[in-house]
Each structure stands twice: as C-alpha cells, then as structure tokens.
Amino acid sequence: MNEEITINEAGIEQIQLTRYTEKAYLNYSMYVINDRALPNVGDGLKPVQRRIIYAMSELGLKASSKFKKSARTIGDVIGKFHPHGDSACYEAMVLMAQSFTYRYPLVDGQGNWGSQDDPKSFAAMRYTESRLKNYADVLLGELGQGTVDWRMNFDGTLEEPKILPARLPNVLLNGGTGIAVGMATDIPPHNLKEVAEGCLYILDNPKATVSDLCSIIKGPDYPTKAELTTPREDILELYKNGRGSLKARAIFKKEHDDIVITALPYQVSGAKVLEQIASQMQKKKLPMIVDLRDESDHENPTRIVLVRKSNRVDIDSVMSHLFSTTDLEKSYRVNFNMIGNDSRPQVKNLTVILKEWLQFRQATVRRRLQYRLDKIIVRLHILEGLMVAFLNIDEVIRIVRTADEPKSALIQKFQISEQQAEAILDLKLRQLAKLEEIKIKSEQDDLGTERKSIELLLSSDARLKTLIKNEIKEDAERFGDDRISPLVVREDAKAFDPTQILSSDPITIILSSSGWVRAAKGHDIDPKTLSYKAGDSFLQAAAGKINQTAVFLDSTGRSYSLSAHSLPSARGQGEPLSGKVNPPSGATFEGVLIGDENLEVLLTTDAGYGFVSTIQNLFSKNKSGKSILRAPKGSKVMAPVMVDNYKEDLVVSVTNEGRMLVFPLKSLPRLAKGKGNKIISIPSARVAERIEFVVAVEVLNLNDSLVIFSGKRHHNLKPSDLAHYAGERGRRGNKLPRGFQNVDKIEVVPKVPRV
Between 393-402 and 406-414, two packed helices, what is the crossing angle to 10 degrees? Predict the structure, then answer.
C-alpha cells in the first residue's frame, strides 16, 4: 500500500480512492471473518464468547463460587478485552446460559434469562447474576499449564488467550451460527458421548471415512425432544459435503381424544405456533379442530392441546397438515464453516473437523506435558541445590549471615548455579535450618518418576494417543448425557388441499361481458335477472361445486384458473377478473368453465377451427395463465362448450352468412393445446377481413333439438331436420332458411334434461 502513496506539492500524502476503499473493505471483511463471526475449530468459540469465558474465569466465577452481577462481569469484559457494545456482549453471554439454545451451556445464571417462547425476553444485566458452569472446565481446565498462545488486548495492557485449550471438540458440541462477509456458518449441536466416541474411533482408525463416523455420530442433537426427520442418506451427504439442511418435527400424542403437542423444534416459539394454528381456525382452514389450549407450565414447558371436532377426525392427517403449514416442522440450514488450525475459514466435513481438532488437542497435550516437564526439571535442579545446602547447613547459614554478597559466595563455595543460590536465599534462615534430607529425597524421587513418565509420553505417539483417549473418556463420563433429539424417518408432511376442507355445496359462476365475475349459491339461478353495472351485461354462467376450480378463457386463447371459493359473492355485482389474474393488454374474457377435472370441453375460434380438451388441461398455476387455443389471424376465441359424450355427440357450427354444418364430434382431435382442426370451411382471407366467421357453436346428441334465434324470430329444428345440414368435418355446410340466415345465437333443447 505504501508504494501506492504519493506526495503532492503541498506535501500531503495521497492514495487513489478506489485502492483505499478496496483495501478498507478487504480489511473489514477479513476482520469480520477471522475475529468476529466464525468459531475456531480448536475451542468452538467466537472471540466475544472466548473473552466472556476467560474474563469470568479471571474474576474467579467458577461453578463452585458465588453468583456475581452480570453487569459487573460484562463491564470487566468490555473494559479489558472486548471494547464493543455492552448489550451485544450481554446477549452473547445470555445465549451461552440458555439451556434451550446451547446443548451444553457454559454460563450458569440466576434471574430471568429468557424462555423458549421468547429467547430475547431476558432481564437487563443489572438484574441478573451469573457464574460459569462445570462444563466450562472443558475449555478452561488447562489454561495455566503452558497450553495457550497469548496476545495483547486492545490497549496493550493485558494478555488474552488466542484459543482456549478445549479438552473436547466444542465446535460440534454446542455448534454456532454467524454471518460474515460473503460467508456464513450454521453448525448444529451434537451429543457429547457420540462425538467423544467418534474421536476415539479416529484415534484408532486414522483413515476413517465420514460413513464410518456416521455409524457413531448419527446426527445433530438439539436441546429439544423434537424429532429429526431427515433421512439417513441426506444426513450422511450433509456430513460429507459440510453443508445441507435438516428437518425437525414436533412430538405429539393422543390423550382423551385430544391431540397434545409435547415438544417443539429447536428455536420455535410455542406462542407463534398457537398464533399460526388459531389463524387457520379463524380463516376456516382447519374445520376439524374446534378448540385450542395452551396448558404449558413449569412442569410441562410445552403442552399445546388441540380438540378435535369428533373422534372420526384422523389425527395423523391433521398433524401432517400442521407440520406443512406451521412451525411445528422446521428446516435448518447446515454449514460447517469455521476457522481451521491454519487460521483460515473453510467449510469442513465431519472427518476433517475431528481430525483437525485432534491435531489441535495433540499439540495442546504436548505443550502441557512439556510445560510440566520443564517445571519438574527446574524443581529437581533447585532440589539439588537445597540438598547441597542441607549437607553444608552450618556453612550456608554463616555465609548468609556474614557475606556482603551471599549469592556470589554460595555459587563460588559450593559450585551451584545462580538459580539454586536464589532458591536457597529465598528460604528463611529458620526454614533453612529445618531442611530435612528425607523430604528432599522423597520429592526428588516423586518428581523423577513423573519426569520419566512424561518423557516416555513425549517420545511415543502411541502413549500420547492413549493419554488423550483416556482424557476424552473421562470428560465424556463426567459431562456426557443421552441423546435428546430422536432420529426418526417420517413421510413428508402434506398440507390439506383447500378443496378437501370445503363442503361440496352447489355454486353458479357468472361472467359478465366486461369481465366481472361472481359466484352464487345453488344452481337455480337466472343470471340474466341479476344486476349489472351500467354498460355491462351477462356473458356466460357455469354450474359446479364450491370445492372445484373455475377456469376462464380470454380472447387471446389463454386460460386462467381460480378456486371457486375465492370468488366474490353474487350479492354484489362481483369483481373484475383482471384483479385476480394478469391477462395480456387488450384481452377480454370470453367464457367460464367449472366441473370435474376430467370433463371434456370443446374449444373453438370463429375462424372455424377447434379441438376437444379436458378441464384439467386448462388449469394454470400462474396469474398470467397459459396459452391453450391458438387463434388464426383476424379471428377471435369463442366461448367454450361442455361435452357429454365424445364418441356420440354432434357438433353444430353456424356462420354469419347463415351456413350451418353438423358432424360427429369424434372427428375433432383431443389436444392439450394448439390451433385444432377445421370445423367448418371458411376462407382465411374472409376471416381476416371479418367478412365471414362463425357466430355460434354447440354440442348436442342425436335426440336433441336445436333452436335458431334471428332477431325476434326463432326456428326449431328437430333431430330429423338436422340431417339436411349433416356432413363431413370441414365442409361449407348448407344454408339456413330465408329469414334465419342472420343468426344471433343457437340453443340446444335436450330431449332428456341433462344433469
């Protein structure tokens, strides 16, 4: 960066703004990654957590000590080690104290430290008291034994540990979350006994794979009894890649015909779940549940009671719906991103994490043993000097009393080291006179034995591994517990289809010429008698059921589907369809359909083309609909016509010039979408210029009659009369009688009323 600094004429240092901002942002990013957001593989702590734990140990707040005001502790942390916001620092302490947040809490608290319903409802730090938990010994037990690299604190007045000498892989045990710049971490908690066993397995089998470890570490272990429902293969893949997702599901049971929820997923609020279920009940999306109660207390932290409408209501299907639509089932992102032994962030798989931690642990134990060995060597050296003093006690006392420089005199007289001389002089004359040969030799023997055992350990990797294994076993026995989160394979949760919940009441959907829609209860509705807005009129109606899906067709040939129950009531004039769907600019709505999804329908254009499709093919998930019917140039889409019997029904088509053609419906193809085949022959040029086009299309069976409407006149055609107009598909058809060639509409009069 110095190379990029220039000095201007005024003697002011200058640097390009782009380079400065790049450097500043990079420095900030690296700070967030390394010194703020990500935990270290060694002790599994972020800097703020490490500083809190260390500061508490320095204040003497062990598990056996008295509680101290949290404000006093936080003051110490931010004053000595962590010069940041006190509230954020206190929140970090609170999280380490919450048994529903941390699998193995590090802090023991008195007062209000929050609840599962609202983890952030904890009292202010001036009202709470805290001390360390016994589990904190895993991180702090070896602190004063030469096991730690130290660095200066922010103002250079004190030293703080870079990484705490963890005796267990806390990064997996308590997990952690954090957001850095361009990366995040989401490490779930695990069971101590399983992780310890995994470490022992790797020590015995250095080439162990993730699959091998997953037979021991079966999955995360959250501090809640909710089930982990992620399949074993997915968990294995998660541990192999170091990232993935997990699903946890609430536990429920049947009790006196009621459904009782007894455990919630990790970090799920019972109050929020109650709100979600109550909301569904209010919106009548959960008619099979008639009552909801929260019976949680100090003995039963989670007890949510759902009262069924009757004992015939299937509990499993209701719960499957709730799992799908509420927080009773929750997904968790997993990302094993952490600072490694090389001080770099990396997403690690399970074997890499445990192997790196074991490397860290081996280095820590070596340092601890070497530190102890150095202390023993120094002490043995001093004991040798004390032995010299014992053997020459009178002379030593004389020198101490009379010599101007007793240290130099002792060194010269007895050929001892400066260190030994200082040790002798540090003893008071009374203590010097009381030196006992037996005590010195006994201490020498004990230290000699210890020295040999440590030297053996340091010279043998196998012995060192055995020591580490024994220590891991000891800690697992002391702090370990049984798994809390059961691993259970469950089927995917499915929400109720809204139509399943609704009744099957009859409904009539009315579409106006301007594209306004409404739904009236029952089928005995005369839509023409309803009130319409000025300039608007009745276009088409369709009879169906309230739990069915209505389909609308626009002038461009696009179809749109809406749930019938979502349509406005016919008590008013309805609402414009364009508010519920997004048709192309200038498009108008031409027809409406409703019924069973397998029912067939004839789709046509006034160019004389069409095909048969099913209502299901017309369903669309998008508000913008989907293209179904392709209209030739200059033509328009006509209202769809329902089909009763594809193989036996007839198609009647009438043009504006009074030509009519009748032919079997089965000669038209069944298609999902497209232009279709020719129904009646009309030259395309005449259609494009709107000279000739189809004005009406209907479907009837062999016994039905037909009524032709022309102005105020109408003409009845019996089945025998229709034979004159019968022909092959795609023909020109025959002319209607004079006076009835200017057709307004046609209507089918069934011989047997259709259901």
Answer: 150
CB 567 within 8 A of CB 539: no
Distance CA 626, CA 618 (A): 8
**Residue ranges of domains in the chain, CATH in brackets:** 14-187 (3.90.199.10), 251-327 (3.30.1360.40), 361-479 (1.10.268.10), 497-595 (no CATH), 597-613+632-755 (2.120.10.90)
Instruction: State CA 728 to chain mean position distance.
Output: 61
Q: What pLDDT shows up at residue 613?
A: 93
The pLDDT of residue 586: 86
Residue 523: per-residue pLDDT: 87
Spatial CA neighbour of 224 closest among 256, 189, 254, 255: 189
Backbone phi, psi, residue 482, to 5°: -75, 155
Pairing mode, if any, of strands 677-678 and 558-563?
unpaired
Low-confidence ranges of the chain (pLDDT < 70): 1-3, 429, 497-503, 751-755
pLDDT one-digit tens code per residue, 286-323: 888 999 999 988 888 899 999 998 888 889 989 999 99
Residue 673 and residue 682 in contact, taking contact as beta carbons nearer than 8 Å: no
Contact 130, 60 (CB under 8 A): no
The one catalytic residue among 20, 127, 239, 332 = 127
Place of tokens 């994490």: 353
- Verify whether residue 560 is a known catalytic residue: no
pLDDT given for residue 49 in this prediction: 97
For residues 351, 356, 361 and 362, what is the CA-based torsion angle, rounded to 10 degrees?
Answer: 100
Tell me how far apart the alpha carbons of residues 522 and 543 are, in angstroms, rounded to a whole number. 8
DSSP character at residue 36: I
CA–CA distance, 508 with 519 (Å, rounded to integer): 6
Evaluate whether 246 touches 238 at the Cβ level (below 8 Å): yes
Identify the pLDDT of residue 753: 56
242 SS3 class: coil
DSSP label at residue 116: S
**Among 536, 615, 547, which residue's Cα sits nearest to residue 577?**
536
**In what side-by-side order are the strands of the sheet with 506-512?**
538-545, 506-512, 516-521, 575-576
Name which of 510, 550, 546, 544 is nearest 527 in CA terms: 510
pLDDT of residue 229: 95
Note whether 196 and 71 are within 8 A (CB).
no
Which token pair is 25? 């942002």
pLDDT score for 502: 60
Task: Give the chain's radius of gyration (CA, Å).
Answer: 43
Q: In what order do the strands lie in the sheet with 227-228?
A: 176-179, 184-187, 329-335, 243-249, 227-228
The amino acid present at 579, given as its one-letter code, is G
**3-state SS string over 524-547?**
CCCHHHCCCCCCCCEEEEEEEECC
Whole-angstrom distance, CA of residue 676 vs CA of residue 373: 93
Instruction: Please state the length of the chain.
Output: 755
Residue 629: other Cβ atoms inside 10 A = 27
Q: Identify whether the C-beta of residue 602 lies closer than 8 Å to the C-beta of residue 609.
A: no
- Can you give the pLDDT at residue 755? 44
For residue 322, give Cα distances in angstroms to 248, 309, 329, 503: 13, 16, 8, 20
Cβ of 563: how many Cβ atoms within 10 Å? 14
Q: Are strands 329-335 and 243-249 parallel, antiparallel or unpaired?
A: antiparallel
Torsion sign over Cα 574, 579, 580, 582: positive
Question: How wide is the angle at C-alpha 55 spanned by C-alphas 164 and 107, nearest 5°?
Answer: 80
Nearest to 232 by CA among 214, 250, 248, 245: 214
CA-CA distance, 275 to 328, in Å (whole number)?
12
- The token pair at 522 is 């029952």
Tokens of 148: 């730690």
